[in-house]
Prior knowledge:
Layout: E1 2-6, H1 19-31, E2 35-41, E3 59-63, H2 67-76, E4 82-86, H3 93-101, E5 107-112, H4 115-124, H5 129-133, E6 139-142, H6 146-155, E7 161-163, E8 186-189, H7 194-209, E9 216-219, E10 232-236, H8 243-248, E11 252-255, H9 259-264, H10 270-277, E12 282-285, E13 301-303, H11 306-315, H12 318-335, H13 338-352
Parallel strand pairs: 1-2, 1-4, 2-3, 4-5, 5-6, 6-7, 8-9, 8-11, 9-10, 11-12, 12-13
Amino acid sequence: MRIAIFGSSLVSSYWNGAATYYRGIVRALAERGHDVVFLEPDAYERQQNRDMEDPSWAEVVVWEPSADRARELVRSVAGFDVVAKTSGVGVLDAELEEAVARLSGPITIYWDVDAPATLARLEADEGDSLRELVPHFDLVLTYGGGDPVIDGYRSLGARDCAPVYNGLDPETHHAEEPDERFAADLAFLGNRLPDREHRVEEFFLAVAAYSPRHSFVLGGSGWEGKPMPGNVRLLGHVGTGDHNALNSTPLAVLNVTRDSMVANGWSPATRVFESAGAGACLITDAWRGIELFLEPGREVLVAHDGDEVARHLDELDPERARSIGEAALARVLRDHTYAQRAEQVEALLGVRA
C-alpha cells in the first residue's frame, strides 16, 4: 500500500515526544513492504534540531506551513491507498483534518497520539471543528487509551476506533555501554509540559529533595530556570541518539505519566518500551492497565506517590535492578514490538481495503 501520514515530525524529537512512536510504526510498515510518505511542517525549530537524516524506509516531505500548501499536499496524496492525519501536528491542524476527512478515494485515518487529552478537549468545547469531522474518517487509531478511548470516540460517531500502542524497535532501542554523562541512581527524561510538571515535582524532584544520598539526572526541554535540589543534574534536550545510553547507565529510570494519560489509563509512554528495550530497571507512576504491558514487581516497579519512588530506590541494588530490566526486555521482545503493531495496523486496514 501507499500510505501518507501528516504528522509533527519523523526526523526530529525536539519538542516532539511522538517521534519515537512515528519512527517505530513507519519503519515497521515499510519493512512489511508498504511505501510511506511522512509530511511534516517546518515549525518549532524542529528542522534545525534534527536527530536523524531522512531515513531510507520513508519519504519525508518538509513543507512551509501555510493553508494553501497544506491543502495542496492533501490533494497530492489523494490517490494513495491510505491517508492519515495525526493529532498535534502543531500548525494548521484544523485545516488538515478538514481536508483529509473529506477525501473520498483513500482510506482516511485520524491517528490520535494524545487521545485522552483530545477527548477531554472535545468534551469541553462543543464547537471544536474536530467533533463533526470524526464520523467522516474511516478509522480512528490512537496511541493508547484502551476501552475508555474507544468508547469516547464511538460516542462522537467514529466508524471504528482501535488503540495501536507504543512498542519496541529492537534495532533502534537496545542496551549500550554506560555513559558518565547519565550516571545517576535515577534518571527522568521528558519535556516540561503543564499537565506533567506537577507530577514530575511529586515523583522526581521531591524524591530528590528528601533523598540527598541519591543522585538524579533530569533530561528534556523547558526545565531551565526550574528550582532543583542540589543532587539533580539538568541535561537539557537529549536527542534520540543518546536515549540508549541514558537508559543503560543509571541504576533506574523513571516514567512519569501526564495528567490526562494517568486519569484515563492504558496509555504506556514510549519511554516504557525504550527503557525496557535497553534492559533498564523502570520505575513508573501507577496507571490503570500497566499489568497488561509489564508485570509489576517483576518486570517493572510501580509507585503511587513520591514516597514509594523513594522506597523503591532505597531497596534497589544493581543485581535486583538488572533482574527487573532483563525480565522487562524479554517481555517487550515477546509481546510489544513495532513489528507486531504494524501487523495490527495491516489487519485493521485490510478489513476496509
